[in-house]
Design brief:
Length: 144
């Protein structure tokens, strides 16, 4: 997650965006979470990471890991529910929930919640899933 803080700082500087502007855009009551992200002290939820990537017109892969800067032309698109997209990719790759839980540090209960409820994962889990499934983060969440 340390590269996320560094990448976010770079995007803020390159786009001349203040912490307060970002706080307002994300509709956050305080900017303490933003400062924690910048220092690598806390993770970020998928839905918030998508808002950031849309705001900066960058890929989630670039925002979170520094890989593949694919600039997005459309901002604030509607994306499929995470569980639906995850299920689609699991079917494409021929892997089961059990296999993912066995081969990664992701708990089976979390996978179940993502697949069957509106529960939103933290980005560290999304990155682990994308690596395991050998897909981009953006593809995993339906952004490409």
């Amino acid at each position: 997650m340390d590269s996320f803080g560094s990448n976010l700082k770079t995007l803020l500087n390159e786009n001349n965006v203040s912490i307060n502007t970002l706080q307002t855009y994300l509709q956050m009551s305080s900017n303490s979470s933003i400062y924690k992200w910048l220092r690598g002290q806390t993770g970020i939820r998928l839905d918030t990471a998508i808002k950031l990537a849309d705001f900066f017109s960058c890929s989630l892969d670039f925002l979170m890991t520094g890989k593949e800067e694919n600039v997005k032309n459309s901002i604030s698109c509607r994306y499929p529910p995470f569980g639906k997209q995850l299920k689609k990719i699991m079917d494409e790759k021929g892997v089961t929930q059990y296999q993912i839980a066995k081969d990664t540090n992701i708990k089976s209960g979390h996978l179940y919640q993502w697949l069957h409820t509106d529960r939103i994962p933290q980005m560290n889990s999304v990155i682990a899933l994308a690596d395991y499934l050998k897909v981009s983060i953006d593809y995993l969440v339906g952004r490409e």
